[in-house]
């Protein structure tokens, strides 16, 4: 039997629901209370409303596969995807809003860490509305990158990229920069949020200063 991620398991245990039929719960980081009070304050990256260092801007503005970019940047380092959590749960209010979901409507949730030599460089959270009689768009991916599949789809559409004035922890990981965009493919709508970790900045010598 597959073990549920601890992020979701504690909520299910409190409700008494079976793993095969998870109760409505807000799937989030282990420090959910801290994450709950953080409003990312999303703004369009293109608007220039937030001053971003040049090195980081190149990463935040990229519209191709982040996985491929990370593998290339890692060089001889070992890249892998670490699955942190995957289940049904309640999205954060700003996630529900951008997806057109009611405040009490569940969605598919997936959280992963994109690691180089076991150090998280990016921690990502994907949210997809539940479609009746269909599995989640990331069902069965496990520790395979979502992007490695998504960017091969010929009908893929992507919204404008937004970045956060504040970074909200994903599964307990707080990043230096955070972005999000909405993908559409074959009737699916998928919100993907990515937090860029301090370890990535250190490894790639990305300046924290807007003038760097």
From TrEMBL:
Pfam families: Chor_lyase. The keyword 4Fe-4S does not apply. It comes from the Bacteria. Gene3D superfamilies: Chorismate lyase-like. Keywords: Cytoplasm, Lyase, Pyruvate, Ubiquinone biosynthesis. It is found in: Cytoplasm. Pathway: Cofactor biosynthesis; ubiquinone biosynthesis. Residues 1-33 are annotated as: Disordered. It is an enzyme of class 4 (lyase). Residues 23-33 have a biased composition (Low complexity). Its EC number is 4.1.3.40. GO terms for molecular function: lyase activity. Substrate binds at residues 110, 146, 194. Residues 1-10 have a biased composition (Polar residues). It catalyses: chorismate = 4-hydroxybenzoate + pyruvate. Removes the pyruvyl group from chorismate, with concomitant aromatization of the ring, to provide 4-hydroxybenzoate (4HB) for the ubiquinone pathway. Belongs to the UbiC family. PANTHER family: CHORISMATE PYRUVATE-LYASE. This is Probable chorismate pyruvate-lyase. It comes from Halomonas litopenaei. The lineage of its organism: Bacteria, Pseudomonadati, Pseudomonadota, Gammaproteobacteria, Oceanospirillales. The gene is ubiC.
């Amino acid at each position: 039997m597959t073990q549920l991620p601890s992020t979701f398991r504690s909520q299910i245990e409190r409700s008494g629901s079976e793993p095969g039929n998870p109760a409505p719960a807000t799937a989030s980081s282990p420090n959910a209370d801290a994450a709950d009070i953080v409003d990312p304050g999303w703004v369009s990256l293109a608007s220039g409303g937030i001053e971003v260092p040049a090195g980081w801007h190149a990463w935040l503005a990229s519209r191709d596969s982040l996985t491929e970019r990370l593998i290339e940047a890692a060089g001889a380092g070992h890249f892998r995807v670490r699955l942190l959590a995957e289940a049904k749960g309640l999205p954060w209010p700003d996630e529900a809003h951008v997806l057109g979901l009611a405040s009490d409507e569940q969605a598919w949730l997936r959280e992963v860490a994109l690691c180089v030599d076991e150090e998280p460089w990016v921690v990502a959270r994907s949210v997809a509305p539940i479609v009746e009689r269909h599995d989640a768009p990331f069902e069965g991916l496990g520790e395979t990158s979502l992007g490695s599949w998504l960017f091969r789809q010929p009908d893929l559409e992507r919204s404008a990229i937004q970045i956060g004035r504040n970074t909200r922890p994903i599964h307990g990981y707080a990043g230096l920069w955070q972005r999000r965009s909405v993908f559409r493919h074959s009737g699916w709508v998928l919100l993907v949020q990515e937090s860029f970790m301090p370890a990535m900045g250190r490894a790639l010598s990305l300046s924290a200063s807007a003038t760097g």
